[in-house]
Amino acid sequence: MCGIVGVYCNDESLTSKIAYFTLYSLQHRGQESAGIAIADRGSIELHRGMGLVTEVFNENTLTKLKGSSAIGHVRYSTTGESKLENAQPILVKSKAGYLAVGHNGNLVNYPQLRAMLENEGRIFVTNSDTEVIAQLLSSFLMKFDVVESLSLLHEKLIGSFSLTILFNDVLIGFRDALGFRPLCVGETDFGYVIASETCALDAIGAGRVRDVKPGEAVIIREGDAEFVKIAESKRLARCVFEYIYFARPDSVIDGVSVYRARYRMGKILAKESPVDADLVSPVPDSGTTAAIGFSDGSGLPYLEVLIKNRYVGRTFIMPEQRLRELSVQLKMNVVRENVKGKRVVLVDDSIVRGTTSRKIVDMVRRAGAREVHFRVGSPPIIAPCYFGIDMSTREELIASNKSIEEICRVLNADSLAYLSLDGLLKAVGFKRCELCLACLTSRYPVPVPGEVTEPLS
Ligand code: 5GP
Ligand code: MG
Fold first, then answer.
1. From ligand 1's centre to the CA of 173, what distance in Å?
2. Which ligand is nearest the CA of 328, by number?
3. CA nearest to 164, candidates 70, 33, 46, 65
4. 334: part of which helix (H) or strand (E)?
5. Which of these, 288, 287, 305, 303, lies nearest to 363 by C-alpha position?
6. CB of 6 within 8 A of CB of 71?
7. Is 355 near ligand 1, meaning CB less than 6 Å away?
8. What sign does the CA torsion over 376, 379, 384, 385 have?
9. Residue 49: DSSP 8-state
10. Which ligand neighbours the alpha carbon of 376 most closely?
11. Do 90 and 134 form a contact (C-beta atoms < 8 A)?
């Protein structure tokens, strides 16, 4: 999972700062590393580092990055490999010129593509699938124009990819034909901004916002934006987990407000799985919007029971098991006065491994709740994601191995219910064939080795 941006600005001294502010607004999409690449008189300058956007950049580094076109990236830690070489954007140089790529998504055929390129004698410096994209695109650009090269690139890639690209001083946003990951464009007084989510465009006051359509590229040359259809698909596969958990609730993805979708998830859940209780409370922050929907749908009062430490960022690794057990308590505390003797409904957006949820139920009980009922704003997560969400393996996914009754016992809750798949579809407002639901159905929209491909219906 990652966040990407692209900026064209007619004031060279502002470009890197706009890239910085938009990346800052996408910090929730990745906290592991950040980077900006900027086109500067025939070459591309790159600044990357490990950590948060505010840790990687300062006034000084931003002022040194001068030019009209830039791309930026924030990276989310997926499978290990948390090191600087894998930070993005990735920069390559060929006879065609400089090429920088920022990628949100995951290539399923990365091993095959990398082996193919290595057999041709190419050398890789990272373990990231983005480098394969950069190498392939760079070789196409030596022979073909931008549109032709993007179309050839699209033919080679299997998986999810929203990209921002800097080719010399041409700025490009490109979204795969299934539309797994979001991408949008906004216009400003000074030019254009491309970003993973609309919240980044709002942050810098961009107007006339529109999504980059699945299979479409936006190509910005010297301040002129051109939208070109590059590839087509019989189905779409927008990631439903963007709506459930990942995206910021103030973003609008493909015309659907993330907030409205989450609110409806909670409201429909309340109708599907009502419970006799005294109050509804979210597991903050990600469960908040669904909990408000649940309260409205059930008529139960909404009250905060868990307070999150605002300054808890990345979950740091506790060196010792005894300290590790404390990690949830450090992040969250219970408002005892709100739970004493009460029947509490806790609403969260999702359960992945079940470890956090178990500890939270335990905390609320120990604080004096009479009953603790758990409600989840999405269906059970039963299968891994190969398209960029860090869901790990089936062994670690609690709902992959256990029935809802068994999970309820593990959580030590008085009752447990998940939103139905139909309820989720209603909440988001897309048809099955417009979404990727693989983590909930174990049926994948594109062929993944060892997994079942969903037939087109
Ligand atoms: P669990 O009880 O499964 O251990 O944790 C559930 C919590 O993890 C939920 O509050 C949910 O918002 C959160 N969550 C879901 N997906 C992700 C993810 O990809 N990364 C992180 N850090 N948290 C997640
Ligand atoms: Mg959460």
1. 29
2. 1
3. 70
4. strand 332-334
5. 305
6. yes
7. yes
8. negative
9. E
10. 1
11. yes
Domain residue extents for the chain: 3-233, 257-453
- 286 CA distance to ligand 2 centroid (A)? 4
Answer positive or negative: Cα dihedral of 265, 271, 274, 278. positive
| Residue pLDDT tens, the chain, 457 long | 899 999 999 999 999 999 999 999 999 999 999 999 999 988 999 999 999 999 999 999 999 999 999 999 999 865 446 789 889 999 999 999 999 999 999 999 999 999 999 999 999 999 999 999 999 999 999 999 999 999 999 999 999 999 999 999 999 999 999 999 999 999 999 999 999 999 999 999 999 889 999 999 999 999 999 999 999 999 999 999 999 999 999 999 999 999 999 999 999 999 999 999 999 999 999 999 999 999 999 999 999 999 999 887 655 545 565 666 677 888 899 999 999 999 999 999 999 999 999 999 999 999 999 999 999 999 999 999 999 887 778 999 999 999 999 999 999 999 999 999 999 999 999 999 999 999 999 999 999 999 999 987 6
Query: Residue 181: which of 288, 272, 104, 84 has the closest Cα?
Result: 104
CA 68 to chain centre: 27
Q: pTM score, two decimals?
A: 0.96
Residue range 257-453 forms a domain whose CATH class is: alpha beta
Q: Could you tell me if the CB of 284 is within 6 A of ligand 1?
A: no
> Distance, CA 303 to ligand 1 centroid (Å)?
21
Instruction: Check if 433 is active-site.
Output: no
Cβ 57 vs Cβ 47: under 8 Å? yes
Among the listed residues 2, 9, 385, 439, the single catalytic one is: 2
CATH topology of domain 3-233: Glutamine Phosphoribosylpyrophosphate, subunit 1, domain 1 (3.60.20)
The amino acid sitting at 104 is: N
DSSP-derived letter for residue 84 is G
Sequence-ordered list of residues with C-beta below 8 angstroms from that of 295, at least 6 positions apart, any chain = 266, 270, 280, 301, 302
Which residues contact residue 118 at a Cβ distance below 8 angstroms, ignoring those fewer than 6 apart? Answer: 124
CA dihedral defined by 205, 207, 210, 216, rounded to 10 degrees? Answer: -80
Instruction: Please tell me if the CB atom of residue 352 comes closer than 6 angstroms to any atom of ligand 1.
Output: yes
Amino acid at 270: A
What residues pair up with 91 in beta bridges, in sequence order? Answer: 100
356 Cβ below 6 A of ligand 1: yes
Q: Which atom of ligand 1 is nearest to the CA of 283?
A: 10
Contact 165, 172 (CB under 8 A): yes
